[in-house]
Amino acid sequence: MDGLKFKALPHLSSDAASANVAEKDHKLQISSDNNAIVEDSETNNSYKPQHISKIQFLLVFVGLSMAIFLTALDLTIISTALPTIALEFKALNELAWVETSYLLVEAVVQPIYGELSNIFGRKPVLLTAIFLFEFGSLLCGLSVNMTMLIISRAVAALGGGGLMGSCQRTWKVSGIIVGCYGIASVVGPLVGGVFTDNITWRWAFLMNLPLGVITFISIIYLLHLPSPTGSFWSKLLRIDWLGAFTLVSATILLLLPLYWAGTKYIYLFKNPKVVACFGVSLFHGMAFISLLLFMPLYFQVVKSESATISGLELIPLMMGILFMDIFSGQLVSRTVFFSYGTICTFGSILMIIGSGLISTFSENTNKSQIIGYSIIFGLGVGLITQTTVLAGQGIVQYEDIATVTSFIVFFRTIGPVFGVAILGTVFNNVFKSNLPLQLQGSLYSTSLVVKGQIPESLIHDFALGLDIVFGITIIFAGLALISSLPLMTVKPQR
After folding, report:
1. Residue 149's pLDDT is what?
2. Which residue ranges of the chain lie beneath pLDDT 70?
3. Domain boundaries along the sequence of the chain
4. 94 and 249 in contact (C-beta within 8 Å)?
5. So what's the pLDDT on residue 88?
6. Do residues 80 and 189 touch, judged by C-beta distance below 8 A?
7. Known Pfam families for this protein (predicted)?
């Protein structure tokens, strides 16, 4: 199933509705008689339009919006809680794996969920994804060591990947996605910090449970939408098991599975402009999420701030992203003067400048510098976030929009997997190499980590390791800049 569309239309007669069933896409339309006409069709044209009330439509709307909000919040709320978690479990060297495990599994399952949605229908797939996400979040909240937390994050990602991929293919109105991401990005780090300081970091995960229940109940109204026909076993036979196995294996081995759907969509990778969208999304994700993960470490360890204050310190970065995300969307929708490449290039330049300035952070960096540098980087991130999606959708034919969107989301998700893994390895090695000889080999032992704090004598070495990490994001942003060059001639179309 390719997606859902929402738009106000006059009431349709039965003949007109039947004619619309022949379209390849499925649509949800609000009619003038307070009902929503649901149209869903595949190549067999076996689906019939159905009516749902505006209340049911609103519940579906809220449910899918909540699903996007949940997954975005889960990615940002943990950023301010991670330093405390790592120090509590005496596993600072494994900190990066908490996010790497989530992002890796999420990236692997997103394309698979797309195929499952086509075969089994979106409603059972979404409900299954919510259940897995909730179960994984519960395990995270109950974790007793870092190993259990890492595995639990992977379980949560089994559902999170399905929610992210399915909802982005469902909502064709990008403003909804921008709004949900924006709100989650701003409140996530702050809420995570408040929970960590005043209650427990476990609530950063457990809060997903009541929110998920609301989402699950709302999504149940998707049962009013028709599902693909055929028996359960016939649907199982339609799954590309070999392709799914190849995708999982290749991604775990850190190879980009460019042919995850087999040879059916390989032609997309022969278009340099489409590949450019994939490249920008990949390196954009590497730079943004990697820096977002390590900045709270700077605030809480180097600056000795609480998790709540570190969440507040991230607000300038998130507000810069939100503002420029909305601005870029308006720029693209209201003018054709600027090409997608121009917007992505300028965003990459801002990311390079911001990363370079952030890499100068030290124990003595003042508040105004932190705010200013964070805003610059955030503005660059926000310019690119939706631009690559819109560019990819504008390049390909209509029937390939859902496919190219899935690929862009996939590359944006797989990027942080590589970025966080690389930066985590660099940080651990730089920090350990600067330790006094008598402390080598005991970096994360009980003697060094006392009551969740790094000894003051090692703060400078810690800051040095983070500065090198932040400096590497300059390379990621530079690669995003290079990748955006083929898009310089691609402008929005009306």
Report:
1. 93
2. 1-52, 56-57, 60, 111, 114-115, 117-121, 165-179, 181, 219-269, 402, 435-455, 457, 494
3. 6-53, 56-255, 265-436+452-494
4. no
5. 85
6. yes
7. MFS_1 (PF07690)
- Of 450, 448, 459, 95, which Cα lies nearest the Cα of 303? 459
Instruction: With beta carbons less than 8 A apart as the criterion, state whether 295 and 473 touch.
Output: no
Q: Is the pTM of this model over 0.70?
A: no
Sheet bearing 50-53, strands edge to edge: 6-8, 27-30, 35-39, 50-53
Q: Is the CB of residue 175 less than 8 Å from the CB of residue 69? A: no
**Cα–chain-centroid distance for residue 106?**
9
Q: What would the pLDDT profile of 395-450 be if each residue is shown by its tens digit?
A: 887 777 767 877 787 788 778 878 888 888 888 888 777 766 655 555 444 444 43
449-469 confidence digits (pLDDT tens): 434 456 676 788 788 888 899
Asked, colleague to colleague, whether 56-255 and 265-436+452-494 share their fold, the answer is yes
Token pair, residue 14, equals: 């039965």
- Alpha-carbon distance of 100 to 78, in angstroms, equals 13
Instruction: Tell me which DSSP letter residue 34 carries.
Output: S
For domain 56-255, which architecture applies? Up-down Bundle (1.20)
Q: Which two tokens stand for residue 274?
A: 């489409």
Tell which phi-psi region holds residue 362, choosing left (phi > 0), alpha (psi between -120 and 50) or beta: beta
**Roughly how many angstroms between the first and final C-alpha of the chain, as a whole number?**
26
Structure tokens at 420: 């966080």
Length of the chain: 494
The interaxial angle of helices 122-141 and 54-77, nearest 10 deg, is 40
Of residues 40, 347, 305, the one with CA closest to residue 189: 305
Supply the pLDDT for residue 19. 39
* CA dihedral angle for residue 354, residue 357, residue 363, residue 364, rounded to 10 degrees: -120
Q: Where are the alpha helices (DSSP H) in 199-306?
A: 203-206, 208-219, 232-238, 241-252, 272-297
Q: Which two tokens stand for residue 443?
A: 């970096």
Q: Count of alpha carbons within 13 Å of 247, Cβ hemisphere only?
A: 24
Q: How many CB atoms lie within 10 A of CB 77?
A: 26
- pLDDT for residue 163: 78
Taking alpha carbons only, the member of 13, 479, 78 closest to residue 297 is 78
Cβ-based burial of 465 (10 A; exposed 0-12, middle 13-18, buried ≥19): buried
